Amino acid sequence: MACQTIRSAARLRPSVLGKIIPDSLTSSRISSSRFVRKELFPSSFYSQVRMTSSSSSDIQNKFALDNKYQGLENNVWVEFIDLNAKLQPLNLGQGFPDFMPAESVVRELAKTCDIEANPLLHQYTRGYGHPRLVKALANLYGNLINRGINPMTEVLVTGGAYGSLFCAIMSNVGPGDEVIIIEPYFDCYEPLVRLAGGTPRFISLKPENPTDASSASWALNMEELRSLFNVKTKAIIVNTPNNPLGKVFTRQELTDIGDLCKEFNVIVISDEVYEWLVYEDNVHTRIASLDGMWDRTITIGSAGKTFSLTGWKLGWSYGPAHLMRNLHIAHQNCVYACPTPLQEALGAQLEKEIKRLNTPDSFFYKMVTDLKERRDLMVRSVRDSGMIPVVPEGGYFMMVNWKPLENKADLSEETDAQADYRFVKWFAKTHKLLGIPPSAFYSNDHKHLAEDYLRLCFYKKTETLQKADEILKHLKNS
Ligand SMILES: Cc1ncc(COP(=O)(O)O)c(C=O)c1O
Questions:
Q1: Where in the chain is the domain with CATH 3.90.1150.10?
Q2: Alpha-carbon distances, residue 417 vs 156, 412, 422, 425, 439 (angstroms)
Q3: Residue 47 pLDDT > 60
Q4: CA-303 nearest atom, ligand 1
């Protein structure tokens, strides 16, 4: 009898009202669960079924968030995307343009959906990356760092750069390992290292001259950096150009970091998603191209940042086969493969870009020329408002010191621990302009270093930037 009850219970499923209805009776013909309960089974049947079912508190207790995710519940993007939806302010928070990406890449995607196109473009492709795309990536980066790259063993295509960060960290870091993270840092580095069981060790870039308005003056203290390296150090994560600061690490800085890695046998996870966005005479140096660094560097890129299509959520990593094998294994045990049509379109677009690299027709050239104008527009607006910009050498974010306008803000209603969170929320609510609080890009002990700033994204339509200018003027005159 007990067995029969369990078997019967297995065929039952809860209704939306929390009552039990047999599968066969959930058609529109019988829509009332009260009817089902009363007419079809004696009440003793239901009490037996209840005894074999877990209560909702049992379920909640057993399936509480697993320990490995405890402490990682809060996420700046979740919070601020929500705030944006609620307040509908001018959104200079997230890093993407509010206009159409380049026509040519969008058309490449449309081609994959042509009814005459290869039907297999709608099916799974090779797990480590669609052949057309990995070949294009190997070709592109092989030329840029002046070495042959094997598309099959030395490249991986992932769900955004995020996916590559996940695979690089999960497959190379474990309990007992330390990973050095340079602040400010893209916020996911820290939780990923902790999820992998590793311990993050933080070092902050600091402005050598606080009144200097360029990201170039934010530097690492190399003695302090050296003091973080030890036998447990497995990796250092470098992000150049840096988000949120816009700092472009110099060749010398990267060489110094590389030398420490060689001395202590450490790998570099080099997040270069803004590699094409470098202004004026600054040069993006790929750390993998430095003497002796290929063997110990995993370099990460993003289609979202490369072609301004963050919604495609495609990224990649490349590096020596002995390191990429680790990432391949993490990837095959996670999402296994990325969407085929997107990879096909991206591969086709990259083939075109490779041919026009370093010419004025190159998309990368056009993008950086266009963005420099938007950056300069925002620098002027920020300076006119009385706030102080940290003029970025790269990327499309700007750190802005809001302290000079502190007396215009009434933060008394805001409850966040960090002043930048309080200011950003107050600003979004009262002046309808949303930025991101950059203390989100610092470890707990160092968040105070960012409290005087907010991060603004200037990859927006000219009208959007003009509206931002008006809002900033209004704040100044309030
Ligand atoms: C420095 C940095 N790395 C990685 C990413 C993630 O890129 P993707 O959207 O391709 O996952 C971002 C996104 O903003 C970023 O700024």
A1: 75-100+362-477
A2: 40, 12, 8, 12, 10
A3: no
A4: 10
